[in-house]
Every structure is written in C-alpha cells, then in structure tokens.
Specification:
4 copies of one chain form a homotetramer. By secondary structure, chain A is mainly α. The first copy, chain A, has 3 domains: 93 residues, Fumarase/aspartase (N-terminal domain) (Fumarase C, Chain B, domain 1); 252 residues, Fumarase C, Chain A, domain 2, CATH 1.20.200.10; 61 residues, Fumarase/aspartase (C-terminal domain) (Ribonucleotide Reductase Protein R1, domain 1), CATH 1.10.40.30. Helix content of chain A is 65%, strand content 5%. The first copy, chain A, contains 20 helices and 6 strands. In chain A, the strands form 3 sheets. In chain A, strands 1-2 form a two-stranded antiparallel sheet. In chain A, strands 3-4 form a two-stranded parallel sheet. In chain A, helix 8 links the parallel strand 3 and strand 4. In chain A, helix 2 packs across helix 8, helix 6 packs parallel to helix 12 and helix 14 packs antiparallel against helix 15. The first copy, chain A, is elongated. The interface between A and B is large, with 90 and 90 residues. Chains A, B, C, D: This is Adenylosuccinate lyase. Chains A, B, C, D: GO terms for molecular function: lyase activity. Chains A, B, C, D: It catalyses: N(6)-(1,2-dicarboxyethyl)-AMP = fumarate + AMP; (2S)-2-[5-amino-1-(5-phospho-beta-D-ribosyl)imidazole-4-carboxamido]succinate = 5-amino-1-(5-phospho-beta-D-ribosyl)imidazole-4-carboxamide + fumarate.
Chain lengths: 435, 435, 435, 435
C-alpha cells in the first residue's frame, strides 16, 4: 500500500483511528450484551458508550503503552480506561484479544469488500455504456495475435462486462466468507463468556457468529478472500492487456485518454504510451501475489499461532487498497477510452479478405466437397494473399476448382460482414438482458 | 500427477480415452442439434451416433495423425471419419477446435469436482463420527504452541468439520464456475453456427451455455477453480499439521494408524512417524502452487492465445488428482486415528494448574479487584509454577492478597474442568445441528 | 512432466531404473569406503560391485516389497540382497535412508543441470548466429508497445544472448548449490559411520561433502535451485513473448517456422500462429510456479520431516523436464525463425519520421534553445504527423522557428538511420567479445 | 513495508530524499562525463555540482510538478533547473528517464544488499557464539517430530550457521546481479549518448556498465535478486520454526527472551509465547511472495513496458525492509535465546533409552546376526518401551536372543552418549574452520 496507488476511502479503513473505533464498538457492544445477560451492571455499559462513543482515541498514547506492554489490545484497553474511568474494568470481561482483533479484521474486510463491489458496479456501468456505443463497430477478432474473423468492438466489451459480472459475484461470496464474528474466549469454548454475547455483537456489527472458533476465526476464510482478490486482479489484467495491445503503434484501434499537460517521454515527445494499463498489469501481479501467503496462513498451529498476523497487517491493506485503486483506474480507462473505428476498419481490410476464409471453407463443404478438398482449395488461394500477392476474393473467383463448386455470387456472399454480426443481439440479450 | 499420489477414478477423467469419448459426445450432440435445426441431414447425425457411440477411439492412431497435422482436433476428426465414413463431413460444421476442447475441459473439471465433493463428504462423515466419539474428551487447548485452556478433542474435530463444510461449499461454487459450454465458433460470434447448438450441447453435457465466449471459454472461471483448490489444500494442510503436532514424541496425544508390516525407519525400529500427514503437507504445497499459473492464464491476448493450454494440460490432472488423493488420505487418517485420552490428561496436568489462570484472573476481577491488580496477583503466583516450583492452586491459596479477595472454595472452583465444557453442546448444535 | 513436453535424455534421469542405479552406486561406494577403513571385509565390497555393477534392478519387484514395508530404501536393500547374497548385510552399515535418497536426488539434479546448461549453450549459439546475421538489419525499437527509435534486429538478439549468458551463470551456480553428498547417519552426527565414508562417496559421485547435515541435506539448497529455474523460465518467456509480438498480423516482422503439413487452425486455413512461443509462455508459468513449494520445503521440522518428499517427487522431474523441453523448443524457434527485414523497414517508416523526434529535440537544444522550447517545437510538429497529417521532416522544415534554429541540412541529418547504429559494434564487442 | 516491521537505515534507502539525491548524482556524474568528452561545457558540469551537491530537493515541489506532467523524471529535472539555473539545460543530454530510474533502483538495491549482508554477519556471529557455548550440550535429534538419536544443541546451531553462510554467499551473488548501470538512451543504442558516459557513471556509482540494455536494465537481474531474498526468507523461517518448536510447552528446551514489562496474553498471565519467531514465520511468507511478481516482471514487451514499475515501487522497499527487519529480529532471538540444558536432558531420557536402538541394531549386525534378525530383536524390545512398559536397556539384557549375541557390557556400551558426539569436532572444523 503506497500513496501513489491508494484511494482515501479504502485507506481510511486501515487507519489506526478506524481500527480503534471498531475495537471500541466491539468491546462496548459486548459489554452491553453482558449487561443484558446480567453479568455486568447496565450503568457500566451505558457509561462506556457515553464516554467512548465520541471519544477520540489517542493513537500515539496507545502506541506508547504498547511499547511497554508489547500487546496491542492491552494497550488499547489501558487507554480506554483512561477515558472511561473505573467502569472500564467491565470491558473485555471473559474475552480474549483475538475476539477483538479478529472480529475487527473481518469488519474491515467486509467494508473493503463493499467498496470493491461498488468499484465493480462503476466499472460495469462504464463497460455497458461503451459496449452499446460500439455494439456494431466492426473490428477484427484475433486468435494467437493473428487476424481471425470479424467481431464488433461492443462484443469485446460485452465479454469484459460478463467477466466483471462474475467478478462481482465472487466478491459478494468473498465478503460472505469473512463476514463472521467470534467472541468465544481464549480457546473458543465460551468458558468465560456466554455465547449470547457473540450473537449480539455479531448482529450489531453486521456479521454472523462464527459457528466454531478456536482462539481465532479460522483462516481458510481469509485465504478464500485474498485468493478471490487475486483472481479479480487477473481479470483487471486481462482488460488492461487488451487496451495495451489495441494501443500498439501498428494496431492503434484505441488509446488511453491523454491529458493535455501529460508528457509521454522525456525524450520522444510524440509518444502516447498506455501507461495506465501497463500500471494495472503490474498492480495485478501484486494483488495476485498476496493469495499465496494468505493460503499459507491457514495452517495455524493447534488453536492458533500468530504467524498470520504480520501477513495480514501487510496484505489486508495492500490487497484491498491496490485492487480498489486498480478497479477505479480501469473504470477511468474504459470510460474515457479513445476508440478509433476507422483504424479498426483499416486493420480489418489488412489481410485482403482472408478473414473470410473459414466462411469460404464452409460454403465449399456445403456445396458437396470433402472437408479435405475444401481445405486445400482455401489454403492454396489464401497463401498468395498472405504473401501480399493479390486479394482473396479475386483469386477465389479465378480458381477453376472453386468456381466449379461455387458461383461467383455465392463466393461474394462469403465476404459480407453482416453475416458475422447476426447474433450480436442474441449475445447482448444474454449478457445485458437487452440488446 | 504421479501414480504414487493418484487414485484411478480421478486419473481416468484425464486419460486420452476419456477425452476422445467426451470430444465425440460434444461433436455428436452438436451434429444432432444441427440436424434438428435442419442444417445437416438427420441421417448423418444418426449414423454418427450409431457408429461412434460404442467405437473405441485409437489413441495411437490419433497421435500419429497429430504428429503430421500438429493439430489435435483435426487429428481426432480425421480418425473419426475413418470410423464414421462419409457422413463425418457433417461433423464439426461451423465449429472451431476450442468449442470442443474447452467444453471438454469443463466436462472434465466438473466430473473432477464431483469426485472432490464426494471426497469431502467422506471426510466430513469421518470427522463427525470421531468428533462425537471424543465430544467430551478433555485435552489442552494451545495458542502459540503454549498451553492455554482446556478444550475437548471433539471440539478440535468440530472445528475441522466446520472448515470442511466450508470447503464443500467452495467446491460446489468452483464446480459451478466451470460448468459452462461454448459452441460459438472461431471468435465467439456464432457466425457459422446457430446459438441453439450451444444450448443443446450444453444441456446434453450437463452444462450451461457460456453467455459470451471469444474463441475460448474465459479463463477467469478456471483461475477461480484452481484458486479454490489451493485454498482447499490449505485446509487439508491445517488438519495434517495438527496430527503431526499431536504425534510428536513429547505430545503423543494421537497417532496415525500404524500397520503391522510397516517400518518407520531403516535405522530406528521404534519409530512411528506421521508420514501420511507429512506427505499431505507436501501435497498441499503442490496444489496451492497451481493457483498462480491458473491466474496468469486469465489474461489471454485478444480473443485468445494458447498459452493456457500447456498449463492446463499439467495442472488440470495434477491439481485434481493430487487433491483427490490428499482428501482420501486425510479421511483415512481421521478414520483410523489412534487417540490417547490418557496422554491428553497427562499433558493437561503438566502445567500444575496454570491453565486455569484466566479463570482465577476473572474471579479476582469479579471480586472487585482492578484488572491490573488481578493480573499482578495471578502472574506472581503463576511464575513459580511455570518454573516447576509448586502447584498453582496451592500457591494461590497461600497468597494472602488472593485469599483476601477469594475464599478457598471459590479458588478451587476455578479449577473445575466442567466449567470449560459447558458450551460444548451449543457448539455441536451450531455445527452439526445436533449435540 | 507430461510426454508432450518431455525429452528422453532428461526424462531418463528421473526413471526408477536410473534412481536404483544411483542408489546402488552410493551404497556400493560407501561399502568400498567402509572396507578401506576396515569396518567391513574388502571381499564383501568387491562382491557387491561384482554382482551389482551390471545387475538389472527389478522395479516391479522393488515396488512389490515396498507395498509391504512402506519404505522404499528398505525395499531396495531387500532386493539388492536377493542379487548380492549374504554380503548384502555389509551394505548400508551405519547409514540412514536419507543418506541414499538425498545424495541420489542431488546426483539427479546435477545431471539435470548439466543438460540444462548444454541446452543454454545451444540456444546461445543460435542467438549468436542470428544476431550476427541481422547485426545491422534496421527495425523499430518500441517502448510501451509504441514506436520509439531505431534499433537493429541483431541488437534485439544480442540482448537475448546477454540474458542467456546470465542464465547460464545462474544455472552453473544452481548446480553448485545442489552438488553435495551426505552420508552422515540418522541425525547427521556420524555416530555410526565414519565421516571419511562421506568424503569418499562424495568424490566418487562427483559431489562435495555437505559440511553439516541433519538427517537430510538442507533444503535451502534445493529452494535456490528451483527458484533459479523459475527465473530462467522467465527469461524463456521474455524471448517467447517477443516472438509472439513480432508475429502479430499487424507487425509480422518475424514468424515461427511453419512446416508443410502443419495446419494452423481447423477453421481458418490461412492462419500461421505462433503456437510454439505461446506454448513456451505457458511452460514458463509452470516452471516458475515450482519455486514456491520448493521454498516452503526449507523449513523442515527439527532434524527433518518428510513433507519435502512429495513436492520433490513432482517438481524434481516436472521443473527440469519442462525447462529442458522449453529451452530446446526456444532454440528451435530462434534457429529457424523467419525474419522479414522488409516488413521491419515498412514498420520503421510507418510513423512518418517521428522516430527521429528525439534527435531533433537534441539538435535544437544543442543549437541553443531551452529544453522547454525545443520540446514544444518538436511536439507541435509531431502531433500532426501522429494524426497522419504529413511527414515529420517536411513539417519541421516548414516551421519557421525550427528553421531559424537549424538549417535544412542539419534537420535532414537528424533522419539518418546510421546515426543510431554507430555503437552497434561497441555493444557486440561487449557481449560477444567481437563485433 | 509498514513501520512496525521496519528499521530506519533500510527505510531511508527508499525515501524520496534518497532517491532524488541518487538521481542528482547520476545526472551530475553524467554531465561531468559529457564535459570530459567535450559535449557540454566543463563549467556547466561544475556549476551543477556546485549548486546541487548540498542542495535539498523539495519533495513536495517535485510532486506538485509531477501532478501536472505525470512524469517523475521531468518533474525532478524541472525542479533541478530551479536550483541550478540555465546550466540545467546540459543535464540529461541524450539520456532517457530510464537511464536515471534504473541506475538509481540498482544503487538502492545494492545498498539494501549491503545492509542485508551485514545483517547476516551479525546473525552468523550470534549463531557461532551460541554454537560454541552449547557445543556439547546433549539434546535429542528428531525426525518427523519423533525422537531419533542424540545430537548437541551446538550442532543444531552449526547447521543454522552453515545455512546462513550459504545465505550470505547468495546475497553477495544477488548484489552482483543488480550492480549495473545503464546510460544508453531511449532504446539502448547510445544513439544520442557516448558509451563512455555509462562507463564513467557506473564507476562513480560503484556499479558496472550493463553490457546491453534496451531502454531499461533487463529485469531477469531483479527477478534473481528478489527470488534470492525469498529463499533467504525461507531460511529465516526454518530457524524461527525450530525455536517455536523448542518453546512448545511439552518441549520447552529453549525460549525467546521475555522482557519484564511484556504481557504474553491479555487473559493468561502465565503464558510466554514465541511471538517473535511466529512473527518471523509470517514475514518469511511475505518476502517469499514477492519472488513471483518479480519473475513476472521479466517478460517486458519489446524494448520495455512499464508494468514492472508499480511492482518494484512496492516490493523494492517491502522485500528489503521486511527481510532486514526479520534478520535483525532473528539475530536478537538467537543472541538472547534462553536455553535449558536440563530440560533437554529430561526429554532425551523420555523414551527409556529407545534413542539408542539404532546402535543396538548395528551392534547385533556386527555380532553376526542378519539385518532382518537384528531388526526383529530390536523392534520386539523397543515396542514395550514405547508403550511405557520398561526401560530399553533392561529389556535387552533380559532378552535371551540378544544376550546370546551381545554380552551385557557391550549392550551397555550402546547407551553411551559420548559415542554420538565423537565427530562433533569434525563438523565444527568443517563449518567454523576450528572446533
């Protein structure tokens, strides 16, 4: 998490201020629950809320205490006692530090997920708008980087849209994975705390109770969360790389928006580089890399060890902040993408009609030739075109074996772009529910 | 995928025989659909089914053809034509190789997921049985590898059970991710094939149509699939490491089953090593490692490149076969685990009662002492016990400050194991729906 | 490791036959050393060599024994006793299984490294030949996928050559890392075996003695080995992706060799796809992924656990076989690469002279203009060219401010390609030692 | 990189102040070289040094300029011109941004490597001191977590020492990998800058010239650097996990130093948790994870894309700062480790003498019994001991078949600890050069 690739809303989730605020809420809700059950005085709970609700927790002070105690929750509770007074002794009754830490982490991850889901919604909106805008803009479809057959630019974006619909569903599932609360004590037995406290705090914090915890919330949940983020980042990378390819000098079918003051290069003033999407490619590598340590965090020893903690202090913020930034940047790229239909047409025409070869092949087969013969005829007319020696249509019409099988009119019909787009509506219907 | 860590049912999914059989089914169903739409003669479709349904595809022959054509689907179609005769020219009409390859891969992954889900069901059954068997077997709960407070061995297994319930749900979701079919032609536009063929084949193969494909089914689906397997493997590792810890010479609370003929060591005949769970630890590392290349596979160029193919040829079998083997092995370990309640009790007693310190702390607080004072009193009596200088209960009773706050009877009550297990039923209810 | 991506020489290293042969050699050399020290009879050692030297070890028989003993080395020794007779009791004296297993693994890795180094040598030879062949073939240099300034195709290959010189050095270092032998007994103390045996066996097997082992050879060595292979794979990927870019339809500056019988696509007969280098991209992902489990293998428990074993049974063959295949395939690609200088020139000319903009910028600065003014002048003439509205040279000469600073002749001199290649010899000297 | 896991010396390397200082030095040295060659006036170079040498670069000002230009080097040069005045136009002549950025990154990595190497030296010193201190402290060697045979605690540390000697050598090699300088212009051809400038700057900055660069220094170097750090982190993890195991309640052979004010748990005051080494386990996961994105950075497109940049902005600081912190923390742990020889002896005695079983086995074999018979005899006496039914020595002496083969005295001799330590000196000689 570095400022360059951060946005304030997501960063705020991971600030010490937010963390202490969430800790307070968990502790205070737990005290309220304890008061309702009759374990601690109701007045104590009320005092804690009254004095703590709007308190500003002094991060420097807590850090100073932790420097001595080497224990963050004790440091916080000590500071809380300074604010709340003697009633503070009713706070944290029967709880263990992890009850606070783990529930807090999950609150943070849930909030982060909410932002990420909103990010995806914005991206989906941009993709949809541009997809409809270019629903029928012809462009070459490529496999292996080689021209294949015509598609539309809208279809490309539809594909991306469908992918990010899946992304959204995965983020919702990932959010569910970590939306749990544990207030179960030192080894998860509720020996010193009534399970009703957990149920109460969970509901108050927008979580569900963890069915069985040890001292900690099991880390397979978090592994699934961060693994999902890694997959999401890979989808970001895919669309970013598509833009990078489209912006290549020789292709130039689209370009990232280029602001006026921006200089592409200190040396080559004409250059307009796809730096945003190149950046996204790198950010995707980072978010992806966090999946592994998250998975290694699962196998904690016995009821828990604390090896996961340092990992989560890093990847918690890093993964969510970076992915949030990446999604927002990608949305900007899509939203303002400069799209060049004329250049798309020029590229489509580049191969002298070869992109229609499969259609000719099919027409020959349907005219009764064997698959092998059809293939041979198409290939022998395609090869000269490939070498820049003529147009495919002309050569086909001049080939006696082809002519014998297909009248000129039928050969020409194979070169109709509309033929390729007749199911665009079907696909749009499938993906957007409307065409 | 090596035979040592493979089981035949899963391995069979990835054999060339199975692959060609699935290819045939896809091609034949597509031809039937084309016949229903009226594109190819119904008799052709019938002949293809008649001659192909029980045909044995000659793997060596197909390999030989591929050695020349360097194209696997063309090689298969050529061989199919040898079997089916002239009607073979109606096969693969308007389709592209990836229609067959990608739909086949997804059929294989779905079948693999079905086996993995069944594996988890077997594991869950074993965990549940052993959990109830040891529902109230006392054992020490440990955090940081240090004795904390009592739990029951059944609770440990309940935790594992709950984790594998999540694993199961994740596998079901992963299966859904890849249960799609694409028959959409060279760049996914259905230019040469009616979308109804895709719908037909999808249903026939137990899949759903991919809403929008390019030439290929988008690889974010597969990335999610393999990432999920990596997370699942991490849960396998967790339980395996728990067993390894329990079997340590100094702990010895449980042991892997040790068959009669088995030799633990060529040099030290007394040794009984947790080799199965050590093995599972290694296998988990492997399954986890496959998540990364699967994620890197997402960003294919434009409508597709084929870089994903070599990765999938490896991790498709490797990840599923290895995880299947690991889950089955883990089930065996759980099922036959030798559990030593007496040794658990000995370990529980090891710390001279220190495991009850939190309870004493709480009792002191509830008796009106400040948190800090209570902590100080507990710690000053705990430290000698830790050094092996006395029993905790004795020292507490002899401490005047403690006695002043708590009568001897109340101190003794803090050492009651039953206190810790009073919510075991609650947890069992939560996890198993019954206690 | 799958046959499709395997070459026999490397695969043979990992066959059971080779493994048992190496085991025999280690055991037999150790017995010889023990005989020299006087621990076992010299005749015993001689008998073992005499009967074992040309023996064929029966893999199926050893597997059958292992199925009972569940211990591979004991199974082998049992079979060896069947071959050698009563003298077999002098084999493995004071040794532990890992002495054999780990030393064998290192012999295999050293042999694998030797093949990989030879692979790199072949690749270097191909790169050098093609580099000199195209030492002065002009082509556009690109940054961010955007045309930058001219380079030569030979320079591109020189860069690759220099990278693979580093690759070679890294492989030599990786080979050194694993070229050790341990014959140190059950916990590495030499309690039951004289250290001189280790020294003897090490020398006989072409290794050096491990200074201190536990029961096993420390796995940081192997982690370094496989991490190095991952880095090497990344260099393979880089060159592969360069070829894929060059073969793009719009670029087409080079192509993988296309054999006569090869079909690019079942549907589009004109297609010539860079399938070899796409394949290399995928293989690189796999080899890279093996670095992680190798690193996780380092932290074995205490004097050893066996979690590394399953990992190494997989990645030992998989990483070396796949990388060997990839390097050989890459060498073939380079060796037979179709290179199109005319198309390179066409692409060079594509931007209407903009690739010379930096030179103009520099000339203006040297003529006394400020950096900012020079930049402004270059950019205002570059932008129309970028939009396809004119040639850069023409516009510059027509710009009064530019003309005021630079006479026409000096502007024209900025467009000389030779200017860019004046240090090609220097670079070739640096990299090849000759130009 | 988070403050909690950072040390100031390493963090300083990555501050904007340091970065701009290095940029200045590179630019100023380059100008000096240009002046020596006669391209720019000597006075200009002198002025630049005179005004820049002690200048404080205003980070906020540079950031503000970059916010407009979106180009960091141009922003810096603009600010430098504000400090230097008109002579600034001679700065950066013929250079490209990457000349500055990449050379700077390598300077930073080299400095980071120097700190890491010094860290390892400190760790080695601590390991050596403690190894000699406990050279002959008996402790049980364990394989699979099961007692095997006696070792000394010094031997354990010797193993770690030897591992970190390798770590040091790897760090030195990694430092070499990145100790290069490129001043070669926009596409690495030296078109606009004399290669002698690169040579001059390289020497001035303590680097060697990159033999051939593109626009950037090739990233296989950095991949190797970060992969090495990942392997180093795995060695850190190994030693950390050893300590964690030793500190387990049931083992308790060693403990992390426990400072007075430190509280182990908010709930269980007696707890002394190995939190430092658990933390190191997590940090190792992080450092390891950075290897993957570094490897993915290698395959930049053509002469460069900028996808590596965001990755390096993160992992450059994160990997080096985290590993520096980890090494320093590990040194502290080793230095102050509480070591309990008496508990080691207690554990050694735990198995009733079974740890000597291999020696008995060997003695029986040497007394003429077959391997199989010896094994059977040892195992039948070992099994009751394992079940806690007697002492191994007593049982062996009472076994008539054993007695028949070995006189009581010889059986007893098998239980001598000194036997196991007779080669400790040899191993110390090998590793430390002195015993």
């Amino acid at each position: 998490m570095i400022p360059r690739y951060s946005r304030p809303e997501m960063t705020a989730i991971w600030s010490p201020e937010t963390r202490f605020r969430i800790w307070f809420e968990i502790e205070a809700h737990a005290t309220t629950a304890l008061a309702e059950i009759g374990i601690v005085p109701k007045e104590a709970a009320e005092t804690i809320w009254a004095k703590g609700r709007d308190a500003v927790f002094d991060v420097a002070r807590i850090d100073a205490i932790e420097a001595v105690t080497k224990h963050d929750v004790i440091a916080f509770l000590t500071h809380l006692a300074e604010i709340v007074g003697p009633e503070a002794r009713f706070v944290h009754q029967g709880m263990t530090s992890s009850d606070v830490l783990d529930t807090c982490l999950n609150v943070q991850l849930v909030r982060a997920a909410d932002i990420l889901i909103a990010d995806v919604d914005a991206l989906l909106a941009a993709l949809k708008r541009r997809a409809f805008e270019h629903k029928l803009t012809p462009t070459i479809g490529r496999s292996h980087g080689i021209h294949a057959e015509p598609v539309t630019f809208g279809l490309k974006l539809t594909q991306a849209y469908a992918e990010f619909v899946r992304v959204r569903a995965r983020l919702v599932a990932a959010r569910e994975e970590v939306a749990t609360c544990a207030i179960s004590g030192a080894v998860g037995t509720f020996a010193n705390i009534d399970p009703r406290v957990e149920v109460y705090v969970a509901e108050a914090m927008g979580l569900t109770p963890e069915p069985v915890s040890t001292q900690v919330i099991p880390r397979d949940r978090h592994a699934m969360f961060f693994a999902t983020l890694g997959v999401v980042a890979s989808s970001v990378e895919r669309l970013a790389i598509e833009v990078r390819h489209l912006q290549r000098t020789e292709v130039l079918e689209a370009e990232e928006f280029f602001s006026e003051g921006q200089k592409g290069s200190s040396a080559m003033p004409h250059k307009r580089n796809p730096v945003l999407t190149e950046n996204l490619t790198g950010l995707a590598r980072m978010v992806r890399s966090f999946a592994l340590p998250a998975m290694e965090n699962v196998a904690l020893w016995h009821e828990r060890d604390i090896s996961h903690s340092s990992v989560e202090r890093m990847i918690g913020p890093d993964a969510t902040v970076t992915l949030d930034f990446a999604l927002a940047r990608l949305t900007g790229v899509v939203d303002k993408l400069l799209i060049y239909p004329e250049q798309m047409q020029r590229n489509l025409d580049k191969l002298g009609g070869l992109v229609h070869s499969q259609r000719v092949l099919l027409a020959l087969t349907q005219a009764g030739l064997s698959r092998e013969d059809s293939y041979r005829l198409v290939q022998r007319n395609a090869m000269p075109v490939w070498r820049g020696e003529g147009e495919f249509l002309t050569l086909l019409k001049a080939d006696p074996e082809v002519s014998a099988a297909l009248p000129a009119q039928e050969i020409e019909a194979c070169f109709d772009l509309g033929y390729h787009f007749k199911h665009v509506d079907t696909i749009f219907e499938r993906v957007f529910g409307t065409a």
